[in-house]
TrEMBL record:
InterPro entries: Mal/L-sulf/L-lact_DH-like_ah, Mal/L-sulf/L-lact_DH-like_NADP, Mal/L-sulfo/L-lacto_DH-like_sf, Malate/L-lactate_DH-like, Trm112-like. It comes from the Eukaryota. The keyword NADP does not apply. Pfam families: Ldh_2 (PF02615), Trm112p (PF03966). One of its GO terms (molecular function) is oxidoreductase activity. SUPFAM superfamilies: L-sulfolactate dehydrogenase-like (SSF89733), Trm112p-like (SSF158997). The keyword Oxidoreductase applies. This is Uncharacterized protein. CDD domains: Trm112-like (cd21089). Belongs to the LDH2/MDH2 oxidoreductase family. It comes from Anopheles stephensi (Indo-Pakistan malaria mosquito). Keywords: Oxidoreductase.
Length: 476
């Protein structure tokens, strides 16, 4: 006898046109008490992050902004004001506005001052999360200036020798224009990684490398879920033995220029920020600098491109991996997006967008390619048999990062197993679910059958053993 079950089809990625991603973000922001002009500024920033390959700071951040807006922790309508100004400097109150609105205002002001007197240095208080720092240095580069930008953030990083977080990821970006579109664009957190990268690994149920974050005991962890819940990143460099104190020092330097100089909150005085949104104003401090290279030695752009050329043409340790300069990985990613015709989003990100569209009542995001979220997945089993297998927690733990939960649910329904519709966040402590998972993976031997996606017509044969569809594949 043949039986079937349905579940949301799973692919690792869906391709979304750049303008469709922008449209979706603008729609969500406008439905969240944000004027169209401000929504476009914020969406442009988020799309650019994804376009440049910084997925942790693009669509991945949208829901957090939306939640802040709905809880009135941030104002979509606020416009920055200048509190104090000289020909070369300005102190700005962001008035708790969207980070992109505050950041664009401040960098544009710094650029105008640089054009007039050679340098512009602008600090802002009462701002919010402003996305990728490189967005603002690119703005300066497009005006022919050298740009620098940095921000403090909610406490997420442990000072060297501390088991608790006191500083933010406190990113720094420096951008300098070269010839014919070339340039130098450094954009880095002063922690080993930005917290968004850990969030992305958690979203994909994948581990993190040693040195990214600490667990609650103060020691490095590779569990993305534990790292995300503990929220204690390691400074750039990792442990003290591997010079993590240098990253710690850089993070503290950013705090001086952002939180201290602007009069904003700093270190542990900044409220924590979660997906649920915040209950109070962030009052982040940010710094924006523009330098007019024409005030110095002539030929800056040519020399900058020559420097890049020297670095790129250094002998390679691996012929398949050429030497890059800051900004090259982003240029390569943008070229790939252009070739592919869209932005690649993980299926779980698409699912989050679908849920957000339902919540806000906006048109769902549309994929160009990949099995769309919600396509029925049909599991047809012609023959199966029960086998005996001792419970193996080590095997289950090793398999967890590779599992596509929707397909597990389809298999569970087929054999009458009642398994949660989504993977529990504390699954390693959920013995009942682990036992059920063990039964599906080790005690049910599918002798013959298929997995079918009726919407696309694709059929996948099941060989003896665990169906391939239960594991993450590049494309269904």
């Amino acid at each position: 006898m043949s039986s079937s079950a349905t579940a949301a089809a799973a692919t690792k990625q869906g391709l979304v046109a750049v303008e469709e991603a922008r449209r979706f973000m603008v729609d969500c922001l406008v439905r969240s008490k944000t004027p169209l002009a401000h929504a476009k500024q914020q969406a442009d920033l988020l799309v650019e992050a994804d376009y440049r390959g910084h997925f942790s700071h693009g669509m991945n951040r949208l829901e957090m902004y939306i939640n802040d807006l709905h809880k009135n922790a941030c104002s979509g309508e606020a416009v920055p004001t200048v509190l104090n100004e000289t020909p070369a400097t300005a102190w700005v109150d962001g008035n708790n506005g969207l980070g992109a609105v505050v950041g664009n205002f401040c960098m544009d002001l710094a650029i105008r001052k640089a054009k007039e007197v050679g340098v512009g240095w602008v600090c802002a208080k009462r701002s919010n999360h402003y996305g990728i720092a490189g967005w603002y240095t690119l703005r300066a580069m497009n005006a022919g200036c050298i740009g620098m930008s940095m921000t403090n953030t909610s406490p997420l990083a442990s000072p060297t020798r501390s088991k608790e977080a006191a500083l933010g990821t406190n990113p720094i970006s420096v951008g300098a224009p070269g010839k014919e579109g070339d340039g130098f664009v450094l954009d880095m957190a002063t922690t080993a990684v930005a917290v968004g990268k850990i969030e992305m690994q958690r979203r994909k149920n994948e581990p993190i490398p040693v040195g990214w974050a600490q667990g609650p005991d103060g020691h490095p962890t590779t569990d993305a879920g534990v790292a995300f819940d503990t929220a204690c990143l390691m400074p750039l460099g990792g442990t003290e033995l591997t010079s993590g104190y240098k990253g710690y020092g850089l993070g503290a330097m950013v705090e001086v220029f952002c939180g201290i100089l602007s009069g904003a909150n700093y270190a542990t005085k900044i409220r924590k920020w979660t997906h649920a949104g915040a209950d109070s104003e962030a009052d982040l401090g940010q710094c924006f600098v523009a330098i007019n290279p024409s005030c110095f030695a002539p030929g800056f752009e040519g020399r900058l491109s020559d420097l890049n050329s020297i670095l790129r043409n250094m002998p390679m340790t691996d012929p398949e991996h050429p030497v890059l300069v800051a900004g090259d990985p982003e240029r390569l990613h943008m070229a790939k997006v252009d070739r592919d015709g869209g932005l690649p989003y993980h299926v779980n990100q698409i699912k989050t967008c679908t849920e957000l569209s339902e919540r806000l009542g906006v048109k769902p995001i549309e994929c160009i390619r990949g099995v769309k979220v919600g396509y029925p997945l049909k599991l047809n089993i012609v023959e199966k048999k029960e086998v005996n297998a001792d419970f193996n927690s080590e095997f289950i733990t090793r398999m967890l990062p590779r599992l596509e939960w929707s397909a597990i649910c389809a298999a569970a329904a087929n054999i009458g197993s009642d398994i949660p519709s989504t993977m529990p966040t504390d699954i390693l402590n959920d013995m009942e679910t682990l036992q059920k998972l063990h039964h599906i993976l080790l005690e049910v031997d599918v002798v013959e059958g298929t997995l079918e996606c009726p919407e696309t017509g694709r059929i996948f044969p099941i060989n003896k053993g665990v169906p391939n569809m239960l594991l993450n594949e590049d494309e269904v």
